[in-house]
UniProtKB/TrEMBL annotation:
Name the UniProt record assigns to this protein: Short-chain dehydrogenase
Keywords for the protein's UniProt record, in alphabetical order: Membrane, Oxidoreductase, Transmembrane, Transmembrane helix
Organism of origin: Pseudoalteromonas luteoviolacea
SUPFAM superfamilies (alphabetical): NAD(P)-binding Rossmann-fold domains
GO molecular function: oxidoreductase activity
InterPro entries (UniProt xref): NAD(P)-bd_dom_sf, Sc_DH/Rdtase_CS, SDR_fam
Length: 240
């Protein structure tokens, strides 16, 4: 059931991590369309102010058909994505690379094409990238490249879209099932609740960029100003 008079927010990747947290946060004061692939998890989200849509974002036909009956939206948050690493650069895994690029970049494009016509004038498009896009990092050939592509895409959309506000989100490390798989230190790790509150408040303020935690993301931005010849030995030390 949804309440009339509230803004309508569509969120992808709604069955886990940041997406699930955003559904919980937005459903307190907005009508939410929660999107994902896992029917069992989606059923647990359905309730007051939340309707669910089950489809695979990597399948263009499924994306197009999923949104046919969706009426105008106030906010679209494209959050869904995957993270896989290439452990041995000498044995580059092209299938892994394709899988990550397709899930994180191409699938986002499918959603933008299908959902932009649904966004009201004055609406908001929010794309969740990653602070990994700031710098080349070990093992992140696929993940980092996909997030850098999303950041570039979002910046261009900010230039091109005149009647829609576009927000780019650069999270640091967030405690989710995705990061639970990481086998390396994650400095300044934040909870899903804190991450979602930062995103919620930033979107409400119609910020062009949301990045957090600041003590981490500002440090990465500072490193990104270094000549690559200075950053490369630091990155090699991280790898070791």
């Amino acid at each position: 059931m949804t309440r009339d008079g509230l803004k309508k927010v569509l969120i992808t990747g709604a069955t886990s991590g940041i997406g699930e947290g955003l559904v919980d946060r937005y459903s307190k004061s907005h009508n939410v369309v929660a999107c994902g692939r896992n029917e069992e998890k989606l059923s647990k989200l359905s309730g007051n102010n939340v309707q669910t849509l089950k489809f695979d974002m990597t399948e263009k036909a499924q994306v197009a058909s999923a949104f046919v009956d969706i009426e105008q939206l106030d906010i679209v948050i494209l959050n869904a994505g995957v993270c896989e690493y290439i452990d041995d650069a000498r044995r580059f895994d092209a299938e892994l690379f394709e899988r990550v690029i397709h899930a994180n970049v191409i699938a986002t494009g499918y959603c933008i094409e299908a959902l932009l016509p649904k966004l009201k004038p004055g609406g908001q498009l929010v794309i969740v990238s990653s602070s990994a896009s700031f710098l080349p990092l070990p093992r992140a050939q696929a993940y980092g490249a996909s997030k850098a592509a999303l950041s570039y895409l979002t910046r261009v959309m900010q230039i091109e879209l005149e009647d829609i506000d576009v927000t780019l989100v650069h999270p640091g490390f967030v405690e989710t099932p995705l990061t639970d798989k990481n086998d390396f230190p994650m400095p300044f790790l934040v909870t899903v609740e804190n991450a979602c509150e930062a995103i919620f408040q930033g979107v409400e303020s119609r910020k062009k960029e949301i990045h957090f935690p600041k003590r981490f993301t500002l440090l990465l931005k500072l490193f990104a100003l270094l000549p690559f010849s200075l950053w490369m030995p630091l990155a090699k030390r991280i790898k070791r």
